[in-house]
Write a structure and sequence with these properties.
Blueprint: H1 15-31, H2 38-45, H3 49-55, H4 59-69, H5 83-91, H6 100-113, H7 117-144, H8 154-157, H9 160-171, H10 178-194
Length: 204
């Protein structure tokens, strides 16, 4: 089964298939990606390994499908009329960063992305790709409305919001909340997007 799909919306064929994904999420949260096995998932889902392999050829494909069923970021355009409103609506809700289950599963695969090429490629295309596209559209609309300065480097700014929130959650152990997301938007993202950067003072 090819891992290359245009969006993070795997085809669901029935309740049993979703039960297996739910079991995969539980095992991921308990032991992480590296220690997850098809045997462990089959046991947790009360299914046979043959059942799993008929639907997913590899562990990576099973984990990717599981990630894609979790609500962890926007996948459809959000237009509230302002950059702040769009960012809060997209990321400050239970379908955004304020989703502890999705965060737990997400953090369990982070280290594996650096070593598992199949997982990394699918993760970037199927899980991150749709979310990055929505984020880019939010900032592009804001630039068209004149809300942000025209010289802004969007490639540099766009990852800042998720990067800060995930760092505080995964590294510092601070659960993501709507209040945290709004603070990062108001105190870091919006000032960076709208404030003119002064030229550095030459040193003598």
């Amino acid at each position: 089964m090819s891992l290359r799909r245009p969006t993070c919306r795997p085809r669901v064929e029935g309740d049993r298939e979703q039960e297996i994904r739910d079991a995969t999420a539980r095992v991921l949260a308990e032991v992480g990606y590296d220690r997850l096995t098809m045997d462990a998932v089959a046991k947790a889902a009360q299914a046979s390994k043959a059942t799993l392999y008929r639907r997913w050829e590899t562990k990576a494909s099973l984990v990717l499908d599981t990630l894609c069923t979790l609500k962890a970021g926007p996948e459809t355009p959000i237009d509230t009329g302002s950059l702040r409103g769009d960012l809060v609506a997209a990321f400050g809700t239970p379908t955004g960063f304020v989703n502890t289950k999705a965060l737990t599963v997400f953090s369990s695969v982070l280290t594996a992305i650096a070593t598992d090429e199949e997982l990394a490629a699918g993760f970037r295309e199927r899980f991150l790709g749709p979310k990055l596209a929505v984020s880019r559209e939010i900032y592009a609309r804001a630039k068209e409305r004149g809300e942000i300065r025209p010289d802004l480097d969007l490639d540099l700014l766009e990852p800042a919001l998720p990067g800060i929130v995930l760092h505080r959650a995964i590294v510092l152990g601070e659960p993501p909340t709507r209040e945290l997301v709004v603070r990062v938007i108001d105190e870091i993202i919006l000032p960076a997007a709208t404030r003119r950067v002064e030229e550095p003072v030459p040193t003598t």
